[in-house]
Amino acid sequence: MRGRGILGAVAASLAALVAAPVAGAASEAQVKAAYLVKLASFVSWPVSAAGDTFRICTSGRPDVGSSLAELSRNQEVGGKRIEPVQLGARGADQVRGCQVLYLGRGGDTAHALLAATGRFPVLTVTDRDSGTRGGAIEFVQVDGRVRFAINRREAESRQLALSSKLMDVAVEVAP
Amino acid sequence: MNGATLRRLHRGLLERRWVTGALAILLIGISLLLAWQSERAAIADQTRQIRVQSQMLASGVASSLAFDDARTTREYLDAFKLNRNIQAAGVYDEGGHLIAGFGVAGAPPGQVRSEQLTIAGRQLVAVEPVRQANLFLGYVYLRSSIESLRARASRYLAIGIVVVLAALLIGLLGTANAAAAAANRALQEQIAAREEAESALRQAQKMEALGQLTGGVAHDFNNLLMAASSGLDLLERAKTDERRDWLKAGIRDALDRGARLTQQLLAFARRTPVQTDVIDVREQVDKLADLLNRSLREDVEVAFEIPPDLWPIEVDVAQLDVAILNLAVNARDAMPRGGRICITAHNRPGGLGERDAVEIALADEGAGMPPETLDKAFEPFFTTKERGRGTGLGLSQVYGFARASGGTVAISSTPGQGTTVTLLVPRSHLPLPAGRVLPARAEAARLVGLRAMLVEDDPALNQLIGQMLAEAGLVVARATSAAEGLAHFEAEPADIVLSDMVMPGAMDGLELARRLRKKRGELPIVLMTGYSEAAGAAADEGFTVVRKPFTLDELVRSLTAAL
Q: How much is the ipTM here?
């Protein structure tokens, strides 16, 4: 939806105005990169997981990785600089230092990385459409827009507390 | 400060009109101040509310704003449509551009730039940033109307009416109170003025009475002095004993009248020592019958209706006689063409309150009295008789006698029908004496040869009374003061002492009598006085008193009584 439209002419005096986000120019990859950062604000990590920087690891989607790198230049999460890291197939040894791990593509690499996180407090984000499943957050495509589903058990098993506000905007919440 | 002072202060303050006016204004002022404060508090409260609401909205839309969920954002916004105070609401992205919003009265602005909380006219505007953790996500905008002046006024109207009514009431009460106080002051002044006028009137009446007394008494005394004086003149020229006796009787009569007049005046003043005796009214009136028949005119008939079984009464017999005489004379004068006077007496059980009384009534068939005369009948010196015929003391004496006897007197009269005067005298429970002791020859003979000491400061009286004592056969020693008398008695004791009561010097007659009695308890002492109060005091201490002026007979009677 673009521009402004007057909706719900129910009462003459009442005007409900809805403006669409100016997201026309934003690509799917840019949106996902932005969401990875924003998600961090709605999640609390256990104190043990704290590091000097806030590390967001991406894998399988170089476009998301580069968008994140661009985005995180002037952004912080919880007062910490964002450190974007792109992981390859052999990045499994680094995966435990990530606060967020985005797996953009399925396959063995993704499984290896996911398995490498063990039960560590890593917010795992997967892309349902790309065949990776089982992340605490799963990006889904709804009406051409990026939405997400929540897997609470996955988050809780990693000692991550998700804000209830996230539930409001999630398309699915699995217990 | 005690309660009374406080009350006085209150009263004093509340009596002032301006105080209550000021109170009423103060009440309204305080009410306005409270209303203003309440207004401020209400606006502050509304500001706080809009702030809290904008924060709630900001918190609510944080995730939907972060993840571009316009539907959820609108859901949150729609919740604010229910609040009737909210005029407009909006949600903005990080750049301050409107994403969603609604406006009931005026749309939300298309762009916001910073956080704000402002009051613009009757509108409250709040712009609150949306943050999640430290992540800035955008803004929310809320605009609410401050309750309109009219709505607020209507809210205050009821209380306002009560306050204004209270103020009016205070003002009204204050005015009424001040008016009442003023009226009270005016009344007090009137009362004071009236009391002053009454006092002046009383004084005038007293002066008038004094004038009448002086006139009446002077007239009577003048007459009797004239009689005595001319009698003495004639006595010097009288050739025969018969003529001299006749003249002496005339002089004696004049002096007796003078004494009676004085007695009546004293009786009115109620200063006579009441020499009471227990008597039977029937017996006493019988004794008077002769006198009455003689002193009244031939065309006046006196009838008696007195039963034999009357209760005894205790009165001053002489005063009773005078009272009956006064009433009879009045009755006679009321019947210029003759008529009948009826004297009646009856027992009246419970006649005086609870006490039994004996009623003595004297009725005539005379002219009677109109009510206005009746009202003044007992007033001293009031007389309807022509000048020189009455002193106006007759009924006053009757009144004085009745009061002194513990009784009452009432008068009833119908013009043209006659007048009835009713005396009520309390019943005495003392027995009647066997018979009054009269100075028999045998008694008088007991005085002969006794040594008497006379104490009298007036030389003329000293001389005269000394001769009277010598006449009675006593041997007289005379002293002119109490001190001299005392010294004389010590030097040469007497068998009987006759002393004046009121004498100059440190010691008076009563004191002398006391000292003499202390020396010789059985010494007969007779005190002379013209003053009734002194006589009463002496009688109280058991001394025999003889009232001046007295006759030789009376003196002899007193002396024998003291023996």
A: 0.79
Contact indicator for B381, B216 with CB cutoff of 8 Å:
yes
Instruction: Tell me if A3 is assigned to some domain.
Output: no
Last residue of a domain, one of B93, B115, B147: B147
One domain, residues B422 and B460: no
The domain containing residue B24 runs over which residues?
A: 17-147
Most B CBs within 10 Å, among A165, A167, A171, A173, to test the B interface: A165
Residue B139 lies in a domain: yes
End-to-end CA distance of chain B: 71
CA separation for the pair B294, B528 (Å, rounded): 33
Helices (H), B337-477: 371-376, 394-404, 441-445, 459-471
For residue B81, the chain A residue with the least C-alpha distance is A14
Q: Are A146 and A28 in contact (CB under 8 A)?
A: yes
Residues of A in contact with B68 (CB under 8 A): 21, 23, 31, 145
Domain termination residue (choose one: B363, B397, B426): B426
Q: How far is CA B57 from CA B9, B86, B139, B140, B145, in A?
A: 62, 13, 10, 7, 18
- C-alpha B13/C-alpha B186 separation (Å) is 18
In whole angstroms, what is the distance from residue B138 CA to residue A155 CA? 27
Best mutation site among A38, A56, A162 for testing chain B: the one with the most B CBs within 10 Å?
Answer: A38
The pTM of this model reads 0.44
Closest CA of chain A from B119, distance in Å: 23
Number of domains in chain A: 1
Please judge whether A42 and B104 are an interchain contact, meaning their C-beta atoms are less than 8 angstroms apart: no
Do the domain assignments include residue B474? yes
Under 8 Å between Cβ of B332 and B296 = yes
For residue B67, the chain A residue with the least C-alpha distance is A35
Whether residue B121 is contained in a domain is answered as yes
Q: Residue A145 — φ and ψ, nearest 5°?
A: -120, 150
Work out the minimum CA distance from A128 to partner chain B, whole angstroms. 17
* B94 vs A: CB within 8 A: no
Q: Which residues of B fall within a CB distance of 8 Å from A168? A: 63-64, 69, 72
Q: Which residue of B has its CA nearest to A11?
A: B104
- Contact (CB<8Å) B67/A14: no
**Cβ A20–B90 below 8 Å, yes or no?**
no
Say how far apart CA B78 and CA B476 lie, in whole Å: 142
pLDDT tens across the length of chain B (563 residues): 566 666 666 666 656 667 778 888 888 899 889 888 888 888 888 889 899 999 999 999 999 999 988 889 999 998 888 888 888 999 999 889 998 999 888 888 888 888 888 887 778 899 999 998 888 899 999 998 887 667 777 877 888 888 889 888 888 888 888 889 889 999 999 999 998 888 777 666 666 656 656 666 677 777 788 888 888 888 888 888 888 888 888 888 888 878 877 776 665 555 444 567 888 898 888 877 776 776 677 788 889 999 988 899 988 887 788 888 888 888 888 888 888 999 999 999 988 888 899 999 999 998 888 887 777 777 765 677 665 455 566 787 788 888 888 899 999 988 888 999 999 999 988 777 754 444 455 677 788 889 999 999 888 888 888 888 888 889 999 999 999 999 999 898 899 999 998 888 888 899 999 999 998 888 999 999 877 677 778 888 888 888 887 888 888 888 888 88
Query: Do both B367 and B501 map to the same domain?
Result: no
**B102: nearest CA partner in chain A:** A16
Contacts of B102 in chain A (CB under 8 A): 14-17
